[in-house]
Amino acid sequence: MSIIRKWSSKQQRALEILIRLKRLYPNATCTLNYETPVQLLVATILSAQCTDERVNQVTPLLFGRFPDAVAIATADLAELETLVRSTGFYRNKAKNIQAACRMIMEKFGGKVPKRMEQLLELPGVARKTANVVLAHAYGINQGVTVDTHVKRLSNRLGLTEHADPIRIERDLIRLLPQPDWENWSIRLIYHGRAVCTARNPKCDACALADLCPAANLPQIDSPVQETKSSGIVPAAKR
Fold first, then answer.
1. Which residues are catalytic?
2. Which of 68, 90, 204, 208 is the one with CA 20 to 30 A from 36?
3. pLDDT per residue over 113-170, tens digit each?
4. pTM for the structure as a whole
5. Is 50 annotated as a binding residue?
6. What element of type H or E holds 24?
7. Torsion angle of C-alpha atoms 1, 208, 201, 171, degrees rounded to 10
8. CA torsion, points 10, 13, 18, 21, in degrees to nearest 10?
């Protein structure tokens, strides 16, 4: 017989998941290495279809050679391509990084803008990159960063039924308090890497399993009586 679970509202579940993620990953932070908003912007663009670990291997040499927007804007494009080659899609990334830095110099006074609509004008920048830059460079929670981990886990946890990142972001914004929008994403990414992996999620070791409709938990031999509950099922003791 399958385990019978009864949950309260989707928003209450989301808040309980957030509480548990904070306990599981209390020190979770952005894993990209950077010193300035421009460097964070560049690193985040490079992280598309690439691991943060790989990006962090590339950026020391890149930023040592071209540390700021003016240097990148005036760099030789072929050299930029060579420096970012191992991150994948290097020609397009190098072109976008240089074009973004040129726009920053020409239109935004040499500073990465602090407004979402202005960030989205920059080549290579969509909402994911803009959310990361606003949250970690300026402390502005404008939205929820949706990468592949956040997309996968949000669907497995039953918090969205969408595949489009913008629609997923809208669903999560409605469920979570604004001050936690970015740390939700960071902690969910940590959990996606460590436990809720794409191919073989470790449901039997997951602290969120009792809140997850997709959890593949061990079956039991005898039926479980459903009991009335107005709260969220507490995490199993481990």
1. 128, 147
2. 90
3. 999 999 999 999 999 999 999 999 999 999 999 999 999 999 999 999 999 999 999 9
4. 0.85
5. no
6. helix 10-24
7. 110
8. -130
Decide: 185 and 143 in contact? Cβ < 8 Å: no
Token duo for residue 215: 């959890």
106 exposure class (CB count in 10 Å sphere: 0-12, 13-18, 19+): exposed
The verdict on whether residue 203 carries a ligand-binding annotation is yes
SS3 at position 223:
coil
Contact residues for 48 (Cβ-Cβ < 8 A; gap 6+): 89, 93, 129
Where b means 16+ CB within 10 Å and e means fewer, 8-41 reads eeeeebbbbbbebbeebbeebebbbebeebbbbb
**Whole-number Å distance between alpha carbons of 133 and 125:** 10
| Tens digit of each residue's pLDDT (9 = 90 or more) over 7-44 | 558 999 999 999 999 999 999 999 999 999 999 999 99
Quote the pLDDT of residue 216. Answer: 82
206 among annotated binding-site residues:
yes
